[in-house]
């Protein structure tokens, strides 16, 4: 199942998404997945409304989720830990981005004047489908995760290094591009290849098999602290290759099966 969230005729809708010969299309309107869309669809309680199918690229897309919180993992790829000169973590390092930092696919990342270095961080994001608390590391993550999407954990690197905690560095408006779709059709166990391009040039290329902490380990750690709610986002960390952004740049984050999260960059 793949879906997106978009505006049409000044109303917000969720749409079922299909891959037609390599291009993503919105084929139907579906009910909002406040709880667990997969279960609701199986139970037949989600009405499908008529929609003239349209390509995803022609739609006015929104972030595909409306999270109560965005939980992020820092330093979860070995090569990225090394490139920033950090110690290899012995437990997950987590932080929050505010939902106000969400930016739709195609939206403009605004570089704050207070920062001299803002980096992209392409990431795989898990979308929570069911309330979760105190999960065991051996629990099946598929019972909790509705699907996956793409995110860019935009970071003011100089402020991250200056501040003792990262709310400012990670929390500016537009610092969390997310989308374009949510899909549960990916095989995480086989490893997903994440790629980030800056102005068309490949800068990040890594497999999620290089995770330091697996998704079940992250879910167990996070839910030992806080309750995850349906629609919450879990950003699983960025691989090596982070680099600064400049006005006029374009960033494309992609994983096969999730489309491309494309955003441009401008001064604030
Ligand atoms: Mg990150």
Label the overall shape. Answer: globular
- What percentage of residues falls in helices of 4 or more residues? 10-25%
Q: How widely separated are the two ends?
A: 37 Å
Task: Domain count, please report it.
Answer: 2
Integer-rounded radius of gyration: 18 Å
Class per helix and strand makeup:
mainly beta
Order of helices and strands: EEEHEEEHEEEEEEEHHEEEHEEE
Number of strands: 19
Ligands: magnesium ion
> What do we call the CATH topology of the largest domain?
Fumarylacetoacetate hydrolase, domain 2
Uncertain runs = 36-47
CATH A-level architecture of the largest domain: Alpha-Beta Complex
Percent of residues in beta strands? 35-45%
Which homologous superfamily in CATH is the superfamily of the largest domain? Fumarylacetoacetase-like, C-terminal domain
Overall mean pLDDT stands at 93
Which sheet architecture does the biggest sheet show? Answer: 12 strands, mixed
Q: What does this 3D model show about the protein?
A:
- There is one protein chain.
- The protein has two domains: 61 residues, no CATH class; 198 residues, Fumarylacetoacetate hydrolase, domain 2.
- Strands 1, 2, 3, 4, 5, 6, 7, 8, 11, 12, 14 and 17 form a twelve-stranded mixed beta sheet that branches. The protein has a five-stranded mixed beta sheet with strand order 9-19-18-15-16, with no helix packed on it. Strands 10-13 form a two-stranded antiparallel sheet.
- The chain is 12% helix and 38% strand.
- Strand 2 and strand 3 form a beta hairpin.
- It is mainly β and 268 residues long.
- The protein starts with a strand and ends with a strand.
- Magnesium ion (MG) binds next to strand 6.
